[in-house]
DNA sequence: GTTTTTTGGCATCACTTTTGCAATAATTTA
DNA sequence: TAAATTATTGCAAAAGTGATGCCAAAAAAC
């Protein structure tokens, strides 16, 4: 993968930090996206699917830990590396951060050279992961890179929302996902869509993968059965 | 679960690989067990019940595919994650591997960082899956996640209210729940439903789970007996 | 332009609650 | 104690409620 194809999402509420870090990374040739608080960060992460997210721990609206937890729940972002920005010596946040699914830490104050080399190191992993990233769940093979599902030897290309919905349901076969959960994960907490949206997508999936794979639990939600 | 409680079984015939991979994983704090061929791997897997098995595809004695198939047949190992070690571009083994029940792939040549992060990602899944929200009460298994009740080996899907009611009663077998209590818990204090509502639901449960399981205590309420 | 996503309106179905009455148990009274 | 009275629960069917399926069309994304 070329450098210019690598997206880095920067989330911090201090414009100064955003500027200095963003400048250094752009200079290195990376694509930099910024957000000023956790919820905006989560939103952009879902939209852009960056390769690396640098998250400030302390932010208004939604802090980094919380943002990271949400990000980690999104299957599309499972390959995304999350690094926290934290003041040196904040032991507490390190522990909480790793629990939330962080991959690494960058400590303030920020030294451009250190920052850049750390980012390079973190991203090195991507270059080698050009092998298709496939995960098997039950009878399905889910290929997140290609937005493609293999079911019983047949390849099925799914549009994004359908793919995400299936990914979620299939991530835990048998588990009933409540409509709220589904909306949170697939659509995002901020976005509000009408009540009929989910079942329309379920219908499409049923058309494509077979009716029996999706079970309705009235009053609760849907589940994928293997 | 703590890192040092996580067991990883490494199966490869090349001592070099065993060494480098083992070193890196131990360094991360995992418990590493090794085996040098498929049949030894299977043996150790059965004995140790590791959380993750990393299996080389090509080995003398018994190859990874075969070993995986055997492992997958063992119910004790049903929660174990199996990842294959494979040379890049070996498309054939990927397909065969998924068929054999593999969960993921790690490609050679091995880069320690990639390996470690992949292992972390795989095990992340484990943490979540372990907390399956199921409660065993006597002969019943109540699975809140799947909204499903297993009674004497039979799965029974219950409508929401019936499920909640049964959950409550079965939460303390033998205890008599007063009608008020039941209303409070299942229906909520605000909602007011007629007096006959509860026993209608009890009747449904009796139809589905057997008459003797529910005992009426006149003037007081109901109890679930095992 | 095409494809995907969302919406609103209905129809439908499943579940929930009510209703009326019968059956049963508890309590009172003769 | 037996009979009568009263309270409580069981039952079946009917009505009510709300959630879901489905369509076709509009809106948005590509």
TrEMBL record, chains A, B:
<feature type="DNA-binding region" description="OmpR/PhoB-type">
    <location>
        <begin position="132"/>
        <end position="226"/>
    </location>
</feature>
<dbReference type="Pfam" id="PF00072">
    <property type="entry name" value="Response_reg"/>
</dbReference>
<comment type="function">
    <text>This protein is a positive regulator for the phosphate regulon. Transcription of this operon is positively regulated by PhoB and PhoR when phosphate is limited.</text>
</comment>
<keyword id="KW-0597">Phosphoprotein</keyword>
<dbReference type="InterPro" id="IPR011006">
    <property type="entry name" value="CheY-like_superfamily"/>
</dbReference>
<keyword id="KW-0805">Transcription regulation</keyword>
<dbReference type="GO" id="GO:0006355">
    <property type="term" value="P:regulation of DNA-templated transcription"/>
</dbReference>
<dbReference type="GO" id="GO:0005829">
    <property type="term" value="C:cytosol"/>
</dbReference>
<dbReference type="GO" id="GO:0000156">
    <property type="term" value="F:phosphorelay response regulator activity"/>
</dbReference>
<dbReference type="GO" id="GO:0032993">
    <property type="term" value="C:protein-DNA complex"/>
</dbReference>
<feature type="domain" description="Response regulatory">
    <location>
        <begin position="7"/>
        <end position="123"/>
    </location>
</feature>
<keyword id="KW-0902">Two-component regulatory system</keyword>
<feature type="domain" description="OmpR/PhoB-type">
    <location>
        <begin position="132"/>
        <end position="226"/>
    </location>
</feature>
<dbReference type="Pfam" id="PF00486">
    <property type="entry name" value="Trans_reg_C"/>
</dbReference>
<keyword id="KW-0238">DNA-binding</keyword>
<dbReference type="GO" id="GO:0000976">
    <property type="term" value="F:transcription cis-regulatory region binding"/>
</dbReference>
<dbReference type="InterPro" id="IPR001789">
    <property type="entry name" value="Sig_transdc_resp-reg_receiver"/>
</dbReference>
<dbReference type="InterPro" id="IPR036388">
    <property type="entry name" value="WH-like_DNA-bd_sf"/>
</dbReference>
<dbReference type="InterPro" id="IPR039420">
    <property type="entry name" value="WalR-like"/>
</dbReference>
<keyword id="KW-0804">Transcription</keyword>
<feature type="modified residue" description="4-aspartylphosphate">
    <location>
        <position position="56"/>
    </location>
</feature>
<dbReference type="InterPro" id="IPR001867">
    <property type="entry name" value="OmpR/PhoB-type_DNA-bd"/>
</dbReference>
<dbReference type="InterPro" id="IPR016032">
    <property type="entry name" value="Sig_transdc_resp-reg_C-effctor"/>
</dbReference>
<protein>
    <recommendedName>
        <fullName>Phosphate regulon transcriptional regulatory protein PhoB</fullName>
    </recommendedName>
</protein>
